[in-house]
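Q: What would this complex look like in 3D?
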Amino acid sequence: MLLQQLISGFATGGLYALAALGLVLIYKTSDVVNFAQGEMAMFSTFIAYTAMTSYGMSYWEAFILALLFASALGFIVERFFIRPIQNAPVLSLLIVTLGLMMIVNGIAGWVFGFETHSFPAIVGGELKIFDAVISKSNLLTLVITVFIMGILFYMLKYTLAGIAIRATSENPTIARLMGIAVNHVYSITWVVSSILGAIAGMFIAPTTFLDVNMMSSVLLKAFTAAVLGGFTTFVGPVVGGLILGVLENIASGYISAQLSSTFAFALIVIMLWIKPTGLVGQKVGKKV
Amino acid sequence: MGKKFIKKLFVIAFALIFTLGIILTGCGNKNNEQPSTPASQKEQTKKELAQGVTDTTVKVGTTLALTGPVAVIGTPMLHGMQAYFNYINDQGGVNGRKIELIYKDDQFNPAVTVQKTQELVEQDKVFALVGTLGTPGLLASMDYIVQKGIPDVYQGSGSSKFAIPFKKNYFPVQPNYTTEGHVLAQYAVDNLNAKNIVIIYQNDEQGTEGLNAIKEQLEKLGKSDLLKAAVPFNTTDVDFSTPVLKAKEANGDVVILLGTAKPLAGIAVKAKEIGYKPQFLASYVVSDLTMFKLAKDAWNGAIVAGWAYPIYGKTENEPKVKLFLDTIKKYFPNETPSGYHVAGWIAAQTFVEGLKRAGDNLTWDGFIKAMETFKDWNDGLAYKLTYTETDHSPQRAMYFMKAIYKNENEYTYEIITDYIEPK
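A: Here is my prediction, written as structure tokens for the whole assembly.
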């Protein structure tokens, strides 16, 4: 039972981590925590679902359509909701993303309805590891999460675009003076993060089923994962997500099932108390 | 300049969307608000009648969720009621009185339910509340309704609090989770010959009430030792491997599932994934077809409780079922008759039966007395309703159905037992 719980915990943790990566990307560039991330992901997933069920597209066509839609959505949100107030205090930006969360959720309910649907997985079937079982789709999620994490890490560290993003994050004014198109950088991060969200949504939906509230609990766990592992790195949320997934299962298996969610939040408090930067987070100099 | 213009355009577009939304929902409310009829007030002086009753009309009210996530239940339930009231009105009403149904959308928000209930009672002055929906809202408005003493027929909720402790003006119809727990336990022991029972329950009112009832009944049957484990889960859980693994570890051959469709489907899928195949036995809460859509073949073979008279299969041509199917088809031709239509239909039917029995004695007291003459009333789609002066317990008997999943388009529940009453 323990092995199965560990493995299932890893599988769920992978979902949390994937959802957290988009959050961290936006946070790293603009210090904004995008509360609407989950709802935007849910909306894109619904686009894929509608494309498959109502327009008879294949999984991959729908997948790509959803990614295209997600990039447009990310672009629009940044261009029309975030940019006009980009010089406002971070708190105002947080409120805007909170508002966006409700707007996107409301519109999704209006357009797609409130029913719960099943969403196909990329691959079916299970894999046996000793006594325990993991679904191939969950395994693939883990692989893709680590892969995306690697790409983001590499891009940020070694490519020109990455350097531009880091410079913008460090000091937007000086970055602009150095010839970096700061607005483009913001645009790109929102587009990429929205795409990451859509991918996360389409990987999570087979497990949680698809409805307008599918991301609400996942996103909370993604936050926890990011805080636990460190909001400032890409490795952080992945480590945090996996640990959270496993800890949740252990807690509900051996301590109390009623308190498994409570446990996650207690963990945030404890983490912030002991090591505010997260397990693998580095200390970042405060912007002045 | 261009930037500003685009911004403005966007604001306008959003403003439009929102006003449209408000107007649309607003319309729904307006349609049904009846113009006040000062003429009818004159007639009221002749006989002593309760509020909302004239010589030609009886006004009743209901609160349901018609927008928001629960609208998928509220809307068909309302239509079921409207269909039956229309059918009765087309025949000239009850004792010459036509029934007017005033409905209010509470969005499944308890605060709104309380407010809308007060509106119905005090402004619209309805004679009775019929077919209201949603446990949190109904519990929130319960104190007010008890204090007013207005008859309240059929609560769309499985809570036992409407029947226990006894409330003079409440007439619950659908079985509560306590009654259901008793039947589930009995069926698992008597018919499934369970050796190791495991209960996986939702960590909320529904789950815990059902859990306690199952324990109670097992004790009554002297079979408490059959219960090997009771494992809770939370609706917000993403991964259900722990409850499933615990059930497997306890060697559960019959696993009783108490909860809502989404998590229960997640549990069924997880069990299939790890190759664990117990006999699932589930609450009537998931007896609609959603489970097939979510869990697919993982739901094949599961047994689910039911309480309302079945409308498909063998019973399809029985007169009382045919009447239901034909009437829904007549008034709502675009809708597939579902269990929620049946619920609304039963609410209306039960109220109308009470109204018939009350005759012209249409005070609240007179109506309540008439309701208390129900003895094994079985003419409607509810099964054997009995109310006495001291006990307004809802229907006790339930039956069971087996899930049959062939492929994505072919799935159904097949009825496998008669109505079973707990010992």
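A: To summarize the key features: Chain B touches chain A through 38 residues (CB under 8 Å). Confidence is low (pLDDT under 50) at residues 24-46 of chain B.
Q: Very helpful, thank you.
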